[in-house]
C-alpha cells in the first residue's frame, strides 16, 4: 500500500519543495492551498500516513488556520499523525488547545532532518 501525505500551504513554492521531499521518501502527496479544501480531501480520502499543514493558509469561516484543521481532523481520526509549521510559532502555539496540544510545531525555516523525525516510520514515541 502506498504511503500518503496531505500537505497544506498557500505558498506554491513551499508546497512544491516539500512535495518533492516527501516523494523522495516514497510518499504520494496530495497538495492543498487552504484548510477547507484540505479537510474535504481528508474526509474523502483519509486517513493519511502524515498530514503537514502550515499554520497560516487561505482561511474560511470554520477553518481559519492550521490548528482548526488539526482539530477537525482529530474529530474524525484522533490518532492521525500530523504536524504544523509556522513562521510565527507564538501565534500558532497560542491557538493549540488541549485537543491538539500534542501536534508538533515546526518553526520556519526548519531542517528536513527535523521533519523526517516526525514521519511515522521514524517516530519513536
Structure description:
It is a single chain. The chain is of the alpha/beta class. The protein has a single domain (3-113), classed as 3-Layer(aba) Sandwich (Rossmann fold). It has helices at 12-24, 35-45, 66-76, 89-95, 112-118, and strands at 3-8, 27-32, 50-54, 82-86, 105-107. A five-stranded parallel beta sheet has the order 2-1-3-4-5, sandwiched between helices. Helix 2 packs parallel to helix 3. The chain is globular, with a radius of gyration of 13 Å. The model has no long low-confidence stretch (mean pLDDT 93).
- How are the strands of the largest sheet arranged? 2-1-3-4-5
Number of domains: 1
Which percent bin holds the helix content?
A: 25-40%
What is the overall silhouette? Answer: globular
Instruction: Report the structural category.
Output: alpha/beta
What separation lies between the terminal Cα atoms?
Answer: 23 Å
CATH architecture: 3-Layer(aba) Sandwich
Tell me the strand percentage band. 15-25%
Secondary-structure element series: EHEHEHEHEH
The rounded Rg comes to 13 Å
Low-confidence stretches: none
What is the assigned CATH homologous superfamily? Response regulator
What is the CATH first-level class name? Alpha Beta
Our count of helices gives 5
Overall pLDDT score: 93
The biggest sheet amounts to: 5 strands, parallel
Per DSSP E runs of 2 or more residues, the count of β-strands stands at 5
* CATH topology (fold) name: Rossmann fold
